[in-house]
Amino acid sequence: MILKDKLFAAGVVGCGGAGFPTHVKLSGEIEHLIINGAECEPLLRTDRYIMTNFASELVRTAEAVRQEISADKCTFGLKSGYKKEIAALKEQISENGLADRIFIHTMDSFYPAGDEQTLVREVTGKTVPPAGIPLDVGCAVTNAATLLCISDALKDIPFTDKFLTVTGEVNHPTVLKVPIGTSFYDCLSLAGGVKCDDYICVSGGPMMGRIIEKADLDKEFVTKTTSGILVLRNDGYIANHNRISVKHMLNRAHSACIQCSYCTQMCPRHLMGHPLEPHKIMRKTALCADINGLLSDPDIKNALLCCECGICETYACPMDLQPRKINSMLKKALGEAGIRYPKGEGMGDESPSRELRKVPSKKAAVRAGVVDYYDYEITELICAEPSEVYENLRQHIGAQSEPLIRDGERVTKGQLIAKCPDGKLGANLHASIDGVASVHGCAIRIVKA
Ligand code: SF4
Ligand code: SF4
Known about the structure:
Blueprint: H1 3-10, H2 22-25, E1 32-36, H3 46-53, H4 55-69, E2 73-79, H5 83-95, E3 102-107, E4 110-111, H6 116-124, E5 139-143, H7 144-154, E6 161-168, E7 174-179, H8 184-190, E8 199-203, E9 210-213, E10 228-233, H9 237-242, H10 246-256, H11 262-266, H12 268-271, H13 278-286, H14 298-301, H15 311-316, H16 323-336, E11 359-360, H17 361-367, E12 381-383, E13 388-392, E14 402-403, E15 409-411, E16 416-419, E17 429-430, E18 435-440, E19 443-447
Parallel strand pairs: 1-2, 1-5, 2-3, 6-10, 7-12
Antiparallel strand pairs: 4-11, 6-7, 8-9, 8-10, 13-19, 14-16, 15-18, 16-17, 18-19
The protein binds iron/sulfur cluster (2 copies).
């Protein structure tokens, strides 16, 4: 079986982002395979743990993939402060005699170094065109956690367990390895429990993660893309900003946006040469009564280029406004109106100030109100198996997986329980524990017998 068949069979999808199926991502004319070890979000430690402790598997798998896709070279992109991780990878590259094919590129500790397009620019000097993908400049990017899943897939081991960081207001910040479908409550218990009564959770990191109110926590289960769970006090910056509605933000922008353009000057996509100018979007939306009437405006269409990194609102804006929130709303409205961004349109020159305007990761954490949780070491991995899991049928980009089990059927860990629909973009799903399975809405529940 060739690599892509094995990845498809094992249900491998990108572990850190939206869950793009990896067998599709590694298709096309790829010259340069880039392994994302930047761990973009300031507080997460998952990829760092994996790079330190599974360096041998990562390096050997990177070379196997490079050969299979006929890429000229492979580069691990990390922050220069990741000394242990860099040393572990270098040792394995040297031991395996791969120094002429596998390289390490180090970067300053800035946010968003792990953004796919930013990483491609840092490692290769090439700029992905507006609305483009790394393949447009001959690259494929996969993160360290996904590479470990690829390593398993090459041994015909399906993707059933997930590494994730649990940190913030918990007693023992840690990295977990748990079956897909484990409840967030179980993950919080494994991290020693929550230290305060009134809290929110963030699925992912503080800059781009999804906010979950405490009352909704019982509906949350680990998926293939859960990179971390961050617990934060309910009265902090992130909790308060999340509760501001788009309507309220537009009202505030109407009266408070001073058109300083700092949001544009600090925007990583704008600095790269993409025609995204959030200050213009804020001006036009704040002055318009009907957003739908604006959708054909070229400045508004540029919202489609926003990667939602949050620099504009968490770091740049002196008036505490939220251009990202407005862009996110516009992206949805543009998508519903069938408006797409033509790839490559409006590509400009990179800003000469790009280097100077990189935001140090720790400063991003300060502005997001999470610096208290910034410095910590992960010393051990906690592995656990819960008594039940809920495996969502859509944990990836593409079509929902189709259940293959009957209610009450006994399944064993690794068994295929839902398949990618024929001919569609999607991913297979496997039982993450042994037990009795049943379909519950858009998830499969497995209870240990
Ligand atoms: S969130 Fe803001 S800073 Fe980030 S890409 Fe979008 S507009 Fe630019
Ligand atoms: S940084 Fe804030 S105040 Fe300045 S233009 Fe952007 S949204 Fe307006």
